[in-house]
Specification:
Layout lengths: L25 H9 L4 H8 L3 H12 L5
Helix pairs in contact: 2-3
Amino acid sequence: MRYNEENLTHGGARRGAGRPATSVDKRRVEVLMNEGLSMRVIAERFGVTAAVIKRVIREIKNGQTK
């Protein structure tokens, strides 16, 4: 099978493949960052990794919403 944009989905060649998205309240992350909390502390509060919080902060700065 040849792969192209039409039969590829996010995360891999099979439909539903890949890691499920992590849901984090962007507004709450922004408030906590403005209060001076570190990414690590915010991540602990949400039960996710600091990398997830870093991605969320980047999306906030770029004006992306999901």
